[in-house]
């Protein structure tokens, strides 16, 4: 600031009085002075272009500056210190809150009057404040959702297992039937040998045909002993 003040004094000293438009020597042409200074002074030499990056940045040294430059503060009736500024900000915030509450109350009154004009019951006109969902309730809802999904998946798995169990049971019966056929096929020759009155050729032919045909083999083993002889002779 001292450099700017010295520069202004020098410029005032170099201005020729004849350049003023006013006839009175004591009268000062402020507009001409401003134009003259703007055209002659290199203001960029007194600015700080590198401080642009510091805009809107917090400055934590207001208390220290207030203490250091306290003697240069204004002392008039309208002078304010930092404490007064903080009080003004607090009062403005409280006033804003009171205005917001008043406007909300007026809106609710207007809505109630409109509902009264339409004949809506008082119980129906009562407005409930929005319920806030806490973190605990939100977590419980998430856990319940996970449990429900898990239960659905388990139910699906049980259904799949039951269906698979039916198919497995059918496969087991099929394998058991095949195993029984193999066991019976191994004893066909012994059963045919028990039949009295058959020649060796008839035993071999009857046993071979019975062993090769599962249906014929099942029918042969379902017969009583006296009928097995007749069946073997017919097959041979």
Automatic annotation (TrEMBL):
Q: What is the lineage of its organism?
A: Eukaryota, Viridiplantae, Streptophyta, Embryophyta, Tracheophyta
Composition-biased stretches, type Polar residues, lie in: 118-129
The domain of life is Eukaryota
Q: Tell me what this protein is called.
A: Uncharacterized protein
Q: Where do the segments described as Disordered lie?
A: 102-131
């Amino acid at each position: 600031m001292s450099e700017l003040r010295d520069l202004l004094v020098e410029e005032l000293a170099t201005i020729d009085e004849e350049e003023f438009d006013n006839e009175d020597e004591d009268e000062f042409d402020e507009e001409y002075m401003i134009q003259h200074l703007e055209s002659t002074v290199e203001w960029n030499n007194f600015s700080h272009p590198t401080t642009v990056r510091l805009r809107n940045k917090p400055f934590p040294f207001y208390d220290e500056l207030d203490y250091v430059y306290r003697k240069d503060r204004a002392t008039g009736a309208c002078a304010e210190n930092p404490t007064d500024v903080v009080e003004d900000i607090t009062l403005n915030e409280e006033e804003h809150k009171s205005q917001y509450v008043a406007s909300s109350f007026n809106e609710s009154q207007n809505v109630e009057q409109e509902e009264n004009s339409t004949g809506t019951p008082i119980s129906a006109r009562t407005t409930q404040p929005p319920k806030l969902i806490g973190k605990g309730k939100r977590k419980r809802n998430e856990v319940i959702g996970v449990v429900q999904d898990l239960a659905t998946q388990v139910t699906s798995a049980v259904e799949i297992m039951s269906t698979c169990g039916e198919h497995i049971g059918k496969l087991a019966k099929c394998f058991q039937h095949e195993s029984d056929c193999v066991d019976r096929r191994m004893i066909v020759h012994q059963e045919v040998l028990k039949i009295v009155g058959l020649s060796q050729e008839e035993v071999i032919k009857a046993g071979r045909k019975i062993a090769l045909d599962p249906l014929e083999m099942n029918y042969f083993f379902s017969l009583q002993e006296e009928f097995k002889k007749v069946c073997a002779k017919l097959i041979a």
